[in-house]
Each structure stands twice: as C-alpha cells, then as structure tokens.
Amino acid sequence: MAEIQSMYAQMGIDSETWEYGEAILERLAERFRKIDEIAEYNQLKVIKAMQDCQVGEACMLGTTGYGYNDLGRDTLEAVYAKIFHTEDALVRPQITCGTHALALALMSNLRPGDELLSPVGKPYDTLEEVIGIRPSRGSLAEYGVSYRQVDLKEDGSFDYDSIVEAINPRTRLVTIQRSKGYQTRPTFSVKQIGELIAFVKKIKPDVICMVDNCYGEFVEPQEPSDVGADMVVGSLIKNPGGGMAPIGGYIAGRKQCVENAAFRLTSPGLGKEVGASLGILKDFYQGLFLAPTVTACALKSAVFAANLYENLGCAVVPNGSESRHDIIQAVTFGSPEAVIAFCQGIQAAAPVDSHVTPEPWDMPGYDAQVIMAAGAFVSGSSIELSADAPIKPPYAVYFQGGLTWPHGKFGILKSLQSLINRGLLDKNRLKL
Ligand SMILES: *Cc1c(COP(=O)(O)O)cnc(C)c1O
Question: What is the pLDDT of residue 181?
Fold first, then answer.
C-alpha cells in the first residue's frame, strides 16, 4: 500500500530502512502465526476464568477506606488464581512495583535463620538490595536471612551438582528468575523451570519454590505455577496489566504463601481483608483481558528486532529463530553511543513524550547509569514500547513491549533510522 510508505516517510523513515524492514518481515509469517495461536489460547483462558468467577459490572466499582468486602478486588484475586491454577492470589494496587511484589513474597515467607537459594545465578539488579547482596537498610540479610547462589553453567544450563551441594537444612525458599532481566543468559522455558523445581523438591520436598515471572506471563500456554512453582510473582505494569493497569503487582500461589504475603503487606491479623481498591479495578480487569494479545504484539516486536539487528551483525539474545519465553530482546551494540542512539530512536516513536530526549542517569537500585526510553501512557510501564540499557559493557540494549504490533514495528524502524542518521550504521548494509 503506497499510503503506508508515504506515512513512514512523513515520520522520518527512509525508503531504504522501510524496505529492509519489509524484507525481514517476509520471513517471519510462520513465527507470527504461532504467536497468534498462543495468544488465542491464553485469551480463552482469561475469558474462561472471568466467566467462571462471575465477573460482573459491580466488580468494576471500587471501595475506599479499609476496603472491607471489596467484591471486585476479591473476585479479581480469584480470577488470577484460576488463570495461574493456584489456590490463592494477592493482586493489589498497594503493591507498588515488581520489586515490591518480590520483596513481599520473600520477606513474608522467610524467617530469621532461613536461607534463600538462587539456583539460576545472580537475580535481577533491584533484588540485590532486597536480599542484601549489596548491603542495604532493611534487607533480608539484616533480618538474619542468609543467601546462597549457584551460577548457571557456561552453556546457560542448570548446575545440578552444585545445587545438590547448596541445599542444606536451612534452605527454605528457592527463587527462580524466569526472564533474563539485564543479563545475556537465555530466558528459561516453563518446561525447564518445571524440571528445576522437580529436582529441588526431590532433594527437599518442603522447600518453597518461587518464580519471578516478570515479562513471562502469557508468552507460553503454561505458567510456572502449572509445573510446580509454589508462588509466581510479577508486576502489573508489565504483561498481565495489558497496558491498562496504572500500578500494581501480584503474587499467585499456595494459600499459605499468599496469606503470609498479605499479612506482611497489610498487617498480621488483617491480611487480605483490608486494602481498598479505590477506582482502579476496571483497568485491572480490562488490562488482564487484553494481556494475551498485548503480550503477542510485544513478542512480534521482539522477534522483528532480533531478526533485523541479527542480520546487521549484532549479537542478539534470543537469536532470530529460537523459541521465546519472555518479551525481552537484548541487542548488543558494543558502544555507548549506539545504545543511546537506539533508545532515543525508540523514544522518538512514542505516542507520549516523543519530543523529549532520554539520557543516561543514576537510577535507584542499579549499580551503573541507566538510559531508559519510554514514551508511555503509564509512567515507566515496560509492557509499552520501551528500551533500557545499563551504560556498561557489553553495551547491550534491552528492548521490550509494544501495546500494538504496528507501534512496535515503527519503534524498531525508528531505532534503526536513528543509528543511520548519526553515522553509526552505514545504510548500504541494509540488505539480506
Ligand atoms: C522488571 C523486573 C523486576 C522488577 O520489577 P520493577 O517493577 O521494575 O520493580 C524483577 N525481575 C524481573 C525479571 C524484571 O523483569
């Protein structure tokens, strides 16, 4: 369609860049079909859970004050529990972000003298202070909870021999991060996570297995809670919020684990009974309803970015053809200038704040400067098209999100154009 190319031209995309993108896309039809198929399955799963729980118009209303008998909140938690096939769930706007949800799950289920084990290497950056790997006020370490870590093997697989050695009588909780986060290791599939949990439970059946599910929700037909996880934890400004939730986090899992978290979030004795939902529930429900297709759009954007940049010689994780278990795409550029140009290109494609220029800054919780591109309706939302990069070697950008596929596509083309316009990439290289 001629109109499309002329529209791209008006929005700063050269014809060479556009044609290169089209050539890459031609190869991706089968990948996209599979992504749509998973979205279809997950869409039905979400609708079924909402129907089974009899979500009604009254559920969209909120409470104020203590929030006793909040029908919409309690029903939403039942819907989450159905989707994740867990006994219970805690889904609250009072959980401020993913880190908070994870800290809550950990701090409420560990006691002084217990040990936390990560059998999958270093956890997400912000958890370092929660755990006390980097000393911090109020960390688990300050409360007498010790931490042990088993790194992945060179090839990214689990080091089962060292995991056996690390598990001891004090090991109470095992934390497994599904997504790669700010690393270049592979993301684990639900199947792999299931194998790891089975292995751990064989050694110590009563250990609690928690999965940091951030960015993984609805990417596969199954969730980690379908393969033995006692708790799955995530953020509502990522996949399950569908771009609609303006705040929030969730913990779904065994009743005991979820109740522990509720007692810590509110107060011993009060637990899940309090916590007014205010006027936020309609967005939580609608976001959850949209989440499977929004996640599919984000996945298509990630697959497109992988193929587009892999063909230009960048190291990409996951690579252009391998299967996907989260929505993050890492692209290694090897220089701070290229990382910054990429992020500024993503920003320039945004519906909100396209006129501002992101710069690296000292973000709380991270040990290097970070640049973040996010022209989002919800501040910091990373299910919306966004990119971030710690300014440190190997100078990799982590790209994720896209509420719609056409926006994801445009953002990636803008990032490429930004590299070309700054002389960081020769446009003669834009060929298959
Ligand atoms: C985003 C993320 C977190 C932390 O979530 P915030 O909402 O940024 O606090 C934790 N773990 C992983 C894997 C994440 O992607």
Answer: 79
CA distances for 318 relative to 29, 211, 384, angstroms: 18, 20, 20
What is the CA(99)–ligand 1 centre distance, in A? 6
Q: Is 181 in the pocket of ligand 1 (CB under 6 A)?
A: yes
Q: Considering the domain delimited by 61-280, tell me its CATH architecture.
A: 3-Layer(aba) Sandwich (3.40)
Q: How is the chain split into domains, by residue range?
A: 2-42+289-429, 61-280
Phi, psi dihedrals of residue 135, rounded to the nearest 5°: -55, 135
Q: Is the pTM of this model over 0.85?
A: yes
Query: Tens digits of per-residue pLDDT, 228-280?
Result: 999 999 999 999 999 999 999 999 999 999 999 999 999 999 999 999 999 99
Q: SS3 of 326, please?
A: coil
Which architecture does CATH list for 2-42+289-429?
Answer: Alpha-Beta Complex (3.90)
* Residues 422 and 344: beta-carbon distance below 8 Å: no
| 96, 99, 175, best to mutate for ligand 1 pocket (most atoms within 8 Å of CB) | 99
Distance between CA 39 and CA 219 in Å, rounded? 8
SS (H, E, C) 380-431: CCCCCCEEEEECCCCCEEEEECCCCHHHHHHHHHHHHHHHHHCCCCCHHHCC
- pLDDT tens-digit map of 190-201: 999 999 999 999
